[in-house]
Design goal:
Strand content: 5-15%
CATH class: Alpha Beta
Structural class: alpha/beta
Oligomer: single chain
CATH architecture: 3-Layer(aba) Sandwich
Largest sheet: 5 strands, parallel
Strand order of the largest sheet: 2-1-3-4-5
Radius of gyration: 16 Å
Number of helices: 10
Number of domains: 1
Shape: globular
CATH superfamily: SGNH hydrolase
């Protein structure tokens, strides 16, 4: 059985563990799974696992690494994180995650995966926020440093990169922002389709699907 793990926060989670939308959720992971089955019905041995948990920062996501990633030994790992590290700066007392701490934690996470699951191909997704609401505008400004960190780490560790920050912005010329992300962060129908299609490009190339 070939395996893909999507690790992340609520952008990935999309209510996948609420009992009604298990096990894929209502977001882009579900779109990826359904697209795989539709385009490649003979490739039913590719298992898709949603390992997103809403509200989590990178530090919290990293604590789940052993059970949610290392234990699974996936062929392909997508990591989506960072938006809550900025969000918490504006809606809680903990001040969010400083860029230096974010970088250190992300680097440690990548090193752990490389050490414990060396055959896993890692793909990083940059966090994003559209300037749609007062809160998402604040988050967008604070994310700039973290986006640069993710881009840099992808190069340094030879990971794949889906630059969602740039990609989501590029679609603003074609679609209403609310069709991309309802609150500037959580993907709506178009947003899910965009992320899923970018993930599918990676999956199709990695598994040489035709």
């Amino acid at each position: 059985m070939r395996k893909i793990v999507f690790l992340g926060d609520s952008v990935t989670d999309a209510r996948h563990s609420d009992g009604l939308n298990s096990p894929y959720g209502t977001g882009f992971v579900s779109v990826v799974r359904n697209t795989l089955w539709f385009r490649y019905p003979s490739q039913s041995d590719i298992d898709v696992l949603n390992r997103g948990v809403g509200g989590e920062t990178l530090l919290q996501i990293a604590k789940r690494l052993k059970n949610d990633v290392i234990a699974e030994k996936p062929d392909l790992l997508f990591i989506e994180a960072g938006v809550n590290d900025s969000w918490r700066k504006f809606d809680s007392d903990n001040g969010g995650t400083p860029d230096s701490v974010f970088s250190e934690c992300y680097e440690e996470l990548l090193q752990t995966v490389r050490r414990e699951s060396p055959k896993t191909r890692i793909v990083l997704l940059t966090p994003y926020a559209l300037a749609l609401t007062p809160m998402s505008l604040l988050i967008r400004g604070d994310l700039e440093g973290k986006i640069k960190i993710v881009r840099s780490l992808a190069v340094h560790y030879g990971c794949g990169l889906i630059d969602l920050s740039a990609i989501m912005d590029s679609y603003r010329r074609y679609f209403d922002e609310k069709a991309i992300a309802l609150d500037g962060v959580h993907p709506a129908v178009i947003g899910c389709a965009i992320i899923a299609e970018e993930a599918m490009k990676v999956i199709e190339s990695f598994f040489a699907l035709k």
